[in-house]
Amino acid sequence: MLLKNYLAAAGLALMQGSLASLQIVPGGSWTSAGTNQHVQAHGGGIVEVDSVYYWIGENKLNGSAFQSVNCYSSTNLVEWTFVGELLSLQSSGDLGPSRIVERPKVIYNDATSKWVMWMHIDSSSYGEAKTGVATGSSICGKYNYLGSFQPLGFQSRDMGLFKDDDGSAYLLSEDRPNGLRIDRLTDDYTNVTSNTYLWSEHIEAPAMYKKNGVYFMFGSQLTGWSTNDNKYSTATSLSGPWSSWANFAPTGTNTYNSQTTFILGVGPNVMYMGDRWLSSNLMASTYIWLPLTLSGRSASLTNEDSWVISTKQSWTPSPAGTTPEAESSSNTLSNGAVTLTCSGCSGGKSVGYIGGSSSGTLQFKGISSNATTKTTVQVRYENGDSSQRYATVTVNGKSQVLAFIPSTNGNTPFSSSLNVELNAGASNVITIGGYQGGWDE
Ligand SMILES: *[C@@H]1O[C@H](CO)[C@@H](O)[C@H](O)[C@H]1NC(C)=O
Ligand SMILES: *[C@@H]1O[C@H](CO)[C@@H](O)[C@H](O)[C@H]1NC(C)=O
Ligand SMILES: *[C@@H]1O[C@H](CO)[C@@H](O)[C@H](O)[C@H]1NC(C)=O
Question: Domain limits at 360?
Fold first, then answer.
């Protein structure tokens, strides 16, 4: 049973060890500051500049057609703030209505002091198969769109960029008739000069990472929006020889139900960034970020419900925690919020009718934390609508808006990450209430 027309909170999950801190929750609703909506940076990548992470990707709020290339910033990879649109919808041309602009990736050119963005440019039927290029003088500012072309005259669909240690940079490009290409970029990074390698195997969503002199190329098989067992290949030279493609997640998991988009080094850690596309409602696609272990020439991906990443030490799974239920008798339900049957929820129950004209609220009392710290609380919920719902969540008197994308997992609740300060002890109060009068919409 998926609850329609209102938000139903199933409970909370608080992971609260002594190392309690902010956590990455793959596959959940990630509310951005500045928009109070689920982050729209699909098919994206992350660039770190002076200890700030910039996440650049596709806005899919209104479906598959181009709306904008968005940029968000964060200092911890968990709390994201919308900064702006790097490229915005134009009245016509490559960035006009009904166009495809996918997988924007950005690298910095030291010689020109410009940020250079490459992206897949296409018609709505994917008949053009081109790359587009734009440049900007600041990572998260406006970009100047230069135009589009087929690199070296070959089709290009999914693409990525790779900048090597010596400053040479490469376009990774899926050429449907021929295979997957590595093409060398010109010195200013705005064009390609020559082909470096061509795999005849058909691999898309390419992303490259280099560790200890080994190049790792990641990508997926071609199954449209559906997931598959993504692959990797390694080499000690970009021109090969490259090893044969192998799985980096357990076979049959479809890469934990995700498609590669980017690989990011974070201190001693390597983070896999994947998309879990929801083709029927692309804005509700989620981000599957997981720890990737690269050792010698092998790669393996670990699945975690939630985890803690650090620039200073190895990542850890989230510590043990508590899972207070929404329907617990120690909570206070008011203004019409009621306990409901919820077949997929723990205990078979949830609390619904939160928000609405009567401002139904659910108050969790006595939430315990063993440290005074900012941490991530997962709000487990069901939203059977096709659009986001929102709640005002107040923790120890401080309020924020939380977004809830549609929960599309049958009877299993989704999770929305709530990043908050908790006090040590058992007196924290979390109130989930309405937002602007709707049923939490
Ligand atoms: C913090 O709380 C968790 C979960 O209740 C518990 O497992 C852990 O031992 C606690 N840590 C400390 C340092 O008290
Ligand atoms: C959303 O997309 C549809 C179809 O592509 C278009 O007609 C509509 O104007 C778009 N709405 C907004 C707000 O961009
Ligand atoms: C890019 O390189 C190709 C091949 O060298 C060349 O034909 C084309 O004019 C170049 N494009 C631009 C915009 O300089």
Answer: 321-433
